[in-house]
Write a structure and sequence with these properties.
The chain contains 10 helices and 14 strands. By secondary structure, the protein is an alpha/beta fold. This is ABC-2 type transport system ATP-binding protein.
Length: 307
């Protein structure tokens, strides 16, 4: 099956000389949830803005559901819903009116039933006749999502959709995202809440300084780059690591009271040897526990490595 979004050799250089994107190529499959992670200024919003027709690329091409975003602009844009970072809404319009207007912008006939479902899904139905200026920041964010979904897009971009919003909205939105994915909608999100990407995404891309440095299936990424730690709480503190343990990836912590062993997630073959060497050296322990790196740990390590 061809990708629903295909980005090829995309670059963007602004008039100031700032090189925001550098030869980016990326394919997104229909129905997947793709998380684009990167530090501030990495190029995430510029990339989304080019795909959505807000910013013009300096080089490269983008195809949305087979349509070129330049030659077939209307058809390509109709396939996309965008929830931007900024709260940009018409303050004097009602929730219903602005959502209905967004649908009409794409030449679609009125569909009150679809709009009602969307507003109910986002807990906005009771606010449908309220002017946007009277809503809280969290409610205004919900309105942006409703506007993006009004024309039933096949691709939904969520650019930092839960930044600064309440827990209830985050939960509502992720429930809605799952339902949309089940209906075949492709979701592309950027987020500073990496725990959200870890929970929701099928694949993860990392962008830094305008370059995609990694694209990987989330589970495979965590398998290959994740690490486990075994922490042994020693019966007696150690002043230093005995030479007999030099072959293991160990470090002392908590003033010599803990021994920390780090290994990758693909196996634990070294544990048996470590425990045997500890017994031979007469080092006992009272307790132990294990921990595993999260997607956030992996992201931080990747960005540091490419700094």
């Amino acid at each position: 099956m061809p990708p629903i979004l295909s980005i090829a050799n995309l670059s963007k250089v602004y008039a100031s000389g700032h090189n925001a994107l550098k030869d980016i190529s990326l394919d997104i499959a229909k129905g997947e949830i793709f998380a684009l992670l990167g530090p501030n200024g990495a190029g995430k919003t510029t990339l989304i803005s080019i795909v959505c027709g807000i910013v013009t690329a300096s080089a490269g091409s983008v195809r949305v559901d087979g349509q070129c975003i330049v030659r077939d602009y209307k058809a390509a844009r109709k396939a996309i819903g965008l929830v931007p970072q900024e709260l940009t809404t018409d303050a004097f319009e009602t929730v219903w009116a602005t959502t209905a207007f967004s649908r009409g912008l794409f030449g679609l006939p009125p569909d009150p039933a679809h709009l009602e479902r969307t507003l109910r899904d986002l807990s906005l139905w009771d606010k449908r006749d309220s002017r946007i200026m009277t809503l809280s920041g969290g409610m205004k964010r919900r309105v942006l999502i409703a506007k993006a979904l009004a024309h039933e897009p096949r691709i939904l971009f969520l650019d930092e959709p839960t930044a600064g919003v309440d827990v209830a909205l985050r939960q509502d939105m992720w429930r809605l995202v799952r339902r949309l994915r089940d209906q075949g909608v492709t979701i592309i999100l950027t987020t500073h809440y990496i725990d959200e990407a870890e929970e929701m995404a099928d694949r993860v891309g990392v962008i830094r300084n305008g370059e995609i440095i990694l694209v990987e299936d989330k589970a495979e990424l965590m398998r290959k780059l994740g690490k486990k730690q075994l922490t042994l709480h020693l019966a007696s503190p150690l002043a230093g690591l005995p030479p007999a343990l030099a072959g293991h990836n160990l470090e002392l912590a908590q003033g010599g009271r803990d021994l920390v062993y780090t290994y990758d997630t693909t196996g634990d073959a070294g544990l048996t040897g470590l425990l045997a060497d500890l017994a031979a050296a007469g080092i006992g322990f009272r307790d132990l526990h294990t921990s595993q790196s999260s997607l956030e740990d992996i992201f931080v390590d990747l960005v540091k490595e490419r700094a």
